[in-house]
Each structure stands twice: as structure tokens, then as C-alpha cells.
């Protein structure tokens, strides 16, 4: 069982980046999918959550209107589209599905 994130990197303020999380060894679609982030010196926080079967997608207030979580169960993947990025979005982003966690992908927002 593995979750592998990709798509992080250095991006300028106001820019966009799309994170991907590819699951292997289990069916991602039967779980809620979450993206967390952890900035240096801060606690890990939930950024977005996509429920299994309908329901309301959750976004942290700090990212509402700028980030979009989505999933493609056929590809066993979850995505986080991040737009209008700010310096305070700089963090390591983690994909969480059920009890499984990815290794994290770093996003640095800086000019």
C-alpha cells in the first residue's frame, strides 16, 4: 500500500500548482480523501477533504475559493488544484486516504 504525491515545487505568488496523489495497493475510492499541510514550525492542518459518497467537500477558511480537491477513482488518484497562491501557503503537503499517508510534497511560494 502506497500513496505518492507529486507536483510540488517553487511557484511565484499568485501562481498555480496542481498536486497529485497516486494510490497503489488499495482502492482509493472507498475512502474519504484529504489533503493536509504542515508549514515549518507549525502543526499539520487539514486543508481540504473530499468525502467518499457525495456529501460536502471541506476547505479550510484560509484556502476557500482558491483550492479545489478532486479525485479520479478510475486512476486511483486525488488532486489538489491550488490557485492564487500566497506566501503563507508554503508548506509540505500530504495526501491522506484512510489510515494511509503519502511522503509529502513541498510547495514554496516565493518571488
Ordered list of secondary-structure elements with their pairings:
Blueprint (H helix, E strand, L loop, with lengths): L1 E5 L2 E3 L5 E8 L8 E6 L6 E6 L7 E2 L7 E6 L4 E6 L8 E7 L2 E2 L3 E5 L2
Parallel strand pairs: 2-11
Antiparallel strand pairs: 1-3, 3-8, 4-5, 4-9, 5-6, 7-8, 9-10, 9-11
For the structure shown, list the relevant keywords:
50% strand, mainly beta, 7-stranded mixed sheet, 111 residues
| Rg, Cα atoms, Å | 13 Å
Q: What fraction of the residues are assigned to beta strands by DSSP?
A: over 45%
Query: What is the molecular shape?
Result: globular
How many strands, which pairing sense, and closed or not: the largest β-sheet?
7 strands, mixed
Would you write up a description of this structure?
The protein has about 110 residues and is mainly β. The protein is about 0% helix and about 50% strand. The protein has no helices and 11 strands. The protein has strands at about 1-5, 10, 15-25, 35-40, 45-50, 60, 65-70, 75-80, 90-95, 100, 105-110. Strands 2, 4, 5, 6, 9, 10 and 11 form a 7-stranded mixed sheet that branches. A 4-stranded antiparallel sheet has the order 1-3-8-7, with no helix packed on it. The radius of gyration is 13 Å and the shape is globular. The N and C termini lie far apart (about 35 Å). The model has no long low-confidence stretch (mean pLDDT about 95).
Amino acid at each position: 500500500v502506497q500513496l505518492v504525491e507529486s507536483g510540488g515545487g517553487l511557484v511565484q505568488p499568485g501562481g498555480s500548482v496542481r498536486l497529485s496523489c497516486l494510490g497503489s495497493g488499495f482502492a482509493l475510492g472507498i475512502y474519504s480523501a484529504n489533503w493536509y499541510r504542515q508549514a515549518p514550525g507549525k502543526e499539520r492542518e487539514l486543508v481540504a477533504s473530499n468525502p467518499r459518497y457525495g456529501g460536502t467537500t471541506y476547505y479550510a477558511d484560509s484556502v476557500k475559493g482558491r483550492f479545489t480537491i478532486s479525485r479520479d477513482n478510475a486512476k486511483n488518484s486525488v488532486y489538489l488544484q491550488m490557485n492564487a497562491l500566497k506566501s503563507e501557503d508554503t508548506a509540505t503537503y500530504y495526501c491522506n486516504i484512510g489510515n494511509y499517508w503519502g511522503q509529502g510534497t513541498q510547495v514554496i511560494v516565493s518571488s
